[in-house]
Design brief:
Helix content is about 65%, strand content about 0%. The protein has about 290 residues and is an all-alpha fold.
Length: about 290
């Protein structure tokens, strides 16, 4: 009997051991994590809501589209919609982020191929126009909100910082990867000025009624040529104060700009303007006394 009980105990332990998994079960595919920490399923839901919103903005207009209507068309609850996007403005921020990601991918071949600053900058600008073309019809509806410096849609708002930083990073790569060799003291200013030039182009594009926004495309090419010449001239020491003056003018004139762009660089640099070392006076450049 003792042997039988021992055998039964052993067999039961073996059965229990066989039933226990030898390794943790793999996570369901729906719970696989994306690089930003979201699960694949949540990212699908977020994308569905965003694409539905963009479609309704095109069909009904931004102001006439409600969050409830977006939820209904997407087939999700209104609460779930607000979970991913706190407002319609945040949906537009999602659109900004998508444009930034697509733009980053679209400019890669241009920046890998071209070495001239004019060609690189023109390629970056026209690539943005190509990506944004399907949304031109309702872009003006966004602009009236984006023009308000207190709006989260403003390109200078805190909410817009991911898309803004991505765009400035592209301009920095456009400049540093070119044959142009601007002075180190302007390394921070020039990419910001190039981004501001792009924002000016976007504003023109918003209200461009020419076929296929052809006038904006011509402006992009000519503006890139002018920018390249300006950067080339910035190598001359006598013209560098002019570049800084233009930058300071834009920082003071554009609402919110001074709090978002070079302000970060000033803080990094311990208070020095725009993250650069203070320029030492050059007596050779001082005009002779009368």
């Amino acid at each position: 009997m003792a042997g039988k009980k021992t055998s039964e105990k052993h067999d039961g332990a073996s059965a229990r051991g066989a039933a226990a998994p030898s390794a943790p079960a793999a996570a369901p595919a729906a719970l696989a994590k994306e690089p930003d920490g979201r699960t694949a399923k949540s990212e699908q839901t977020r994308t569905l809501i965003l694409e539905t919103a963009l479609r309704l903005f095109q069909e009904r207009g931004f102001d006439k589209t409600t969050m409830r209507a977006i939820a209904r068309e997407a087939g999700v609850s209104t609460g779930n919609t607000y979970y991913y996007f706190a407002s319609k403005e945040h949906l537009v921020q999602g659109f900004y982020d998508r444009i930034a990601d697509e733009h980053r991918a679209a400019v890669a071949p241009v920046l890998a191929r071209e070495t001239g600053l004019e060609e690189r900058f023109a390629g970056v600008l026209t690539a943005w126009l190509d990506i944004a073309a399907p949304y031109h019809e309702f872009a003006a509806q966004f602009f009236k909100n984006a023009a308000d410096p207190a709006s989260p849609l403003s390109p200078f708002s805190t909410d817009s910082s991911p898309a803004r930083d991505a765009a400035i990073a592209i301009q920095r790569e456009t400049l540093t990867g070119s044959r142009a060799k601007p002075p180190a003291e302007l390394a921070t200013l020039l990419p910001e000025l190039m981004w501001l030039a792009q924002m000016g182009l976007v504003l023109y594009w918003v209200f461009d009624s020419s076929p296929d926004t052809e006038r904006t495309r011509r402006l992009a090419v000519r503006g890139a040529r002018l920018t390249a010449r300006g950067v080339s001239l910035s190598r001359f020491r006598v013209l560098r104060p002019l570049v800084r003056e233009v930058h300071e003018l834009l920082m003071d004139f554009l609402p919110g700009a001074s709090e978002t762009l070079s302000a970060k660089e000033r803080r990094k640099g311990g208070g020095e303007a725009r993250g650069t070392a203070p320029e030492q006076p050059d007596v050779r450049e001082r005009p002779a006394a009368d």
